């Protein structure tokens, strides 16, 4: 199997950008990735793009150059850009292409995830009676987990405080204001045990990553190549239910993140004990806590001690969400997974500036979770 090297990354800032379209943001992200890699758009042989709001991400070629390349649009909820990454890498590993690009973008209005069940083919009454309110589901999930594994509310607040603090070091983050643990705990309770400042927000942004055959990396760029060792996408064995279902065999099933992480580790020949820095889906503070265990980085319940001791801080033994994660960056769905890869590439290259993990990290993990029950995990290394 051919190695796949990541030779360029580009990130449009996350936030609110007025009338600027998602496609325009995607074009900017592509240009940044091209500049980072040193290759020209004419060198790109194919593209994969994803978005929640934009059906035809391929329209970005109108802005960056109509070269006639094949371009495929994908959507897989919050795992959308992880899917774009996987398909781009697979196209290169198959031998069909030498170099390609994955891009993700979105432009969400406020409240985008609470009032449009039609996006998932659900009847209007799901929204009318409150069932399509993702914060409600996340609160129920976090409440159950924290009770079962003795995770305190203060630990949830510590996660959020850490991510706001990391976001303050990230010039492209949406929320760059730090909040104390007390401020987070005292913010309005949205869905117990999660307060308003423990949640991310839908927003706008775009990201792009350029990949090529590993043996050709030096031909295209002078950057230190970072290798995408694996990407695995999995669903639940009981199917998709999660946010909007009326029944779920919760006790008989486990999260798709568990399946995806195990598959990614196996394919990469790397274990969770080898991970130096991780980017985990933190739609809320509880999600980061849960995903630490589901990706094998710790055992259920160990998060309380690890987080209290600062293990997940930038200078800790297991840095998590060094760029602020979703809590600081917000979530333009189509771009989130590539944002994670962007951060890991900077960390592994030693280019993350004030948020650089010390000790020359060599292995990174990216994990995203897409309702209603799809997860992806990717392993990067030098």
TrEMBL record:
CDD domains: SCP-x_thiolase. It comes from Rhodococcus coprophilus. Gene3D superfamilies: 3.40.47.10. The lineage of its organism: Bacteria, Bacillati, Actinomycetota, Actinomycetes, Mycobacteriales. Residues 4-173 form the Thiolase N-terminal domain. This is Thiolase. InterPro entries: Thiolase, Thiolase-like, Thiolase_C_2, Thiolase_N. One of its GO terms (molecular function) is acyltransferase activity, transferring groups other than amino-acyl groups. Pfam families: Thiolase_C_1 (PF22691), Thiolase_N (PF00108). Residues 254-378 form the Thiolase C-terminal domain.
């Amino acid at each position: 199997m051919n190695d796949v090297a990541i030779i360029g990354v580009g990130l449009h800032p996350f936030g609110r950008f007025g009338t600027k379209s998602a496609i325009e943001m995607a074009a900017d992200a592509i240009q940044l990735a091209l500049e980072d890699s040193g290759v020209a758009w004419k060198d790109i042989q194919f593209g994969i793009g994803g978005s929640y709001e934009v059906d035809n991400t391929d329209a970005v070629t109108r802005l960056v150059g109509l070269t006639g390349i094949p371009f495929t649009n994908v959507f897989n909820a919050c795992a959308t850009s992880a899917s774009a990454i996987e398909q781009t890498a697979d196209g290169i590993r198959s031998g069909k292409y030498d170099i390609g690009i994955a891009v993700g973008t979105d432009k969400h209005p406020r409240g985008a995830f609470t009032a449009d069940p039609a996006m998932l083919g659900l009847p209007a009454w799901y929204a009318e009676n409150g069932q399509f309110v993702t914060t409600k589901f996340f609160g129920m999930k976090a409440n159950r987990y924290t009770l079962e594994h003795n995770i305190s509310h203060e630990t949830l607040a510590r996660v959020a405080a850490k991510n706001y603090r990391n976001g303050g070091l990230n010039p492209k983050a949406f929320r760059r204001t730090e909040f104390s643990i007390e401020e987070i705990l005292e913010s309005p309770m949205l869905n117990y045990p999660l307060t308003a400042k423990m949640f991310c927000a839908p927003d706008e942004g775009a990201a792009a990553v350029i990949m090529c055959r590993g043996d050709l990396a030096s031909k295209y760029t002078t950057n230190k190549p970072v290798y995408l060792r694996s990407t695995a996408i999995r669903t639940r064995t009981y199917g998709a239910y999660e946010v909007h279902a009326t029944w779920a065999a919760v006790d008989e099933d486990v999260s798709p993140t568990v399946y995806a992480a195990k598959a990614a580790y196996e394919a990469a020949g790397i274990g969770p004990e080898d991970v130096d820095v991780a980017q985990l889906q933190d739609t809320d503070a509880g999600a980061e806590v849960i995903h630490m265990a589901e990706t094998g980085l710790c055992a259920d319940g160990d998060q309380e001690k690890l987080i209290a001791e600062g293990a997940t801080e930038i200078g800790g033994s297991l840095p998590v969400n060094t760029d602020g994660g979703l809590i600081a960056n917000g979530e333009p769905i189509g771009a989130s997974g590539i944002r994670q890869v962007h951060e890991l590439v900077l960390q592994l290259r030693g280019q993350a500036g004030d948020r650089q993990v010390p000790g020359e990290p060599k292995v990174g993990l990216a994990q995203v979770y897409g309702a209603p029950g799809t997860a992806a995990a990717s392993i990067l290394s030098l």
